[in-house]
Amino acid sequence: MRDQLISVIIAERPYRLTVNSEGEEEVFRKAARLVDDKMQEYARNYAFRDKQDLLAMVNLQFAVEYLRLDNKAVEQRSVREQLIKVEQLLDKCLLEES
Questions:
Q1: Neighbouring-strand partners of residue 15
Q2: Does the first or last residue of the chain, that is N or C, have fewer Cβ atoms within 10 Å of its Cβ?
């Protein structure tokens, strides 16, 4: 599929983006809705001066969530690597016993 120009709305402003597949288009649309929904949630629950404050807080929340997920992925890779080493040691012990 060729590049496609789409428009998403964030904070009542349209943004034009180029995507290269239908799946990517849906991801960008969902992401824009997610940002907008979070901004509305913050607007209902917290005092703010302007939309810049809301965008900053939403951005901070998503960055924190990303870092938490990234840390979990690193931990999972480490555990997986340790399990592989244990499996190799067990295999070596079993071969030596045979």
A1: 8
A2: C
Distance CA 8, CA 42 (A): 20
d(C-alpha 26, C-alpha 32), whole Å: 10
CB 39 within 8 A of CB 46: no
Predicted local distance difference test score (pLDDT) of residue 96: 86
DSSP track, the chain? ---EEEEEEETTEEEEEEESSHHHHHHHHHHHHHHHHHHHHHHHHS--SSHHHHHHHHHHHHHHHHHHHHHHHHHHHHHHHHHHHHHHHHHHHHHHH-
Taking Cα atoms as reference points, which of 61, 14, 15 lies closest to residue 38?
61
CA-to-CA distance for 86 and 78, rounded, in angstroms?
12
